[in-house]
Amino acid sequence: MGKAGKAKGKKKRRQKVVEELDTSIPRSFVIGRDVPPPVQQLVADMRMIMSPYTALKLKVSKKNVLKDFVAMAGPLGVSHLLSFTKTSVGTNLRLARLPRGPTLTFRVPSYALAKDVASCLSKPKSPGQQLLMPPLLVLNNFAGEDVATKLLSTTFQSMFPSIDVSTVELGALKRVVLIHRDSDGEMYLRHYELSVKPAGVSKSVKSLLKPEVPDLSKFKDVSEFVLRGGEGYESDASDMGDSNKVELAQTLKGANLASSKSAIRMTEMGPRLSLSLLKVEEGFCGGEVLYHSHISKSEADVAAMKKKREKAAQLKASRKAEQARNVEKKAAERAANRERSIAGHNAKHGKGPEESKKGAAVGERSRGDSGVLREDSGTEDEYDAHAAVLSSDDDAEWYRKEVGEEPEAGLFSKYRPKQGSRSGGRDNGSSRKAGKGHEKERSGTGSKKGSYFSGPQTKRKRQDNGGAASTKAKKSRQKK
Fold it and tell me: What region does 24 belong to: left with phi over 0, alpha with psi -120 to 50, or beta?
């Protein structure tokens, strides 16, 4: 017998495993709001620098505001927001710590995209596996005691995961982000790829260490390939002498053995940015200005601005409190109106306190949040009884107007459902039979509402009752 085939159309349900976010790792959003295409490409390059702990495919629409990103930052564990904007003066970069700041605003006087940097290199490096590991941050000339310098160094360090020198694996260090600050306060950002190669080894030996086997068809022996004249060792000009040769503490790929000298090379990947600090704000994109490069204010101006912000905060709190009071007041008014309506309805139909409480409970269950009666609430007996009360009242009122006398007792009797005939909104065979029997019993008495069913039967009964009432009215006029 052959193997039984699998059932078509059935897929195994795999339960998704939700990993807990590590809050110690900083994550970021890099966005551009209403920027031209070159700045959009700069946003993509900055996401490459901040990878792997950033949203590479984040889409930003014109309707999005900063509050949208702040709301999503909490569940996703995002700690930093980098926002590029374009003004008439130039391009600006806003770097904010979520959710409460501080916020640093930079002016970007000049920048170069990653594709522009790659076009200038003879052997450019394309981004690939090196983006799966976070970069190593190097800060140069950030020593200072002023508030701006301290905030700059602290903010830049908190953007990337911290590295423990004693336990780090050298194979995990694939990239370097260098931020240099000159004496004028101008900052320059560069992005490099790290590569380690053994030092003092000829090109022939290096080619043998590679996975690809070199072409040895032109040589009689391997020694000719290794000791070929004029190409014994590669030039040390690109290695900058002995300044970039170090002894490794761990063994790496490519014949980089521990305690042996290896040459470290840095290949620029881009982009390049020139940054100039414009201002530092205490909160998230707002609050007290701690530093401004162009505007300096006196202590009186700072106190006046602080007083103005406190007044605005108090006004906002008072408006929120007033809105809460208005909501409570409207809810109380709706409840009072509902009670008055129920009391008036009970007084009109002569219901006692027990029935009024029961009717109020039924009304609360049958009404939703908007206070409108739902079609699926209550039983059919309640609907029929309510319809019978309304129809009998209308007929009695019509009889008084036409005849001028009070109707006889039982002429327009109110409908009362048979107990146990129905338990809810669903129909069953026994209830239908009981309803038909009840209709037959009341048909001889001239009752207006003797059936569970509405429609043509009810209309015909109304016509019959109307005809009987009109005949009686004629007879009374003739007697007069």
Answer: alpha
Place of tokens 């982000």: 177
Give residue-wise pLDDT tens across range 429-438.
444 444 444 4
Q: Is the pLDDT of residue 305 over 60?
A: yes
Residue whose token pair is 């490459």 = 48
**How far apart (Å, rounded) are the C-alpha atoms in residues 183 and 388?**
93
Number of Cβ within 10 Å of residue 350's Cβ equals 7
Length of the chain in terms of residues written: 480
DSSP annotation of 171 reads G
Strand partners, 92: 85, 107
Torsion angles phi and psi, residue 160, rounded to 5: -120, 150
* 351-364: pLDDT as tens digits: 655 555 555 555 55
Q: pTM for this one? A: 0.59
Going 68 to 271 to 94 to 151, the CA torsion angle's sign is positive
Q: What is the enclosing helix (H) or strand (E) of 118?
A: helix 114-120
Answer yes or no: is pLDDT of 211 > 70: no
Mean pLDDT computed over every residue of the chain? 76
Structural tokens at position 15:
């339960």
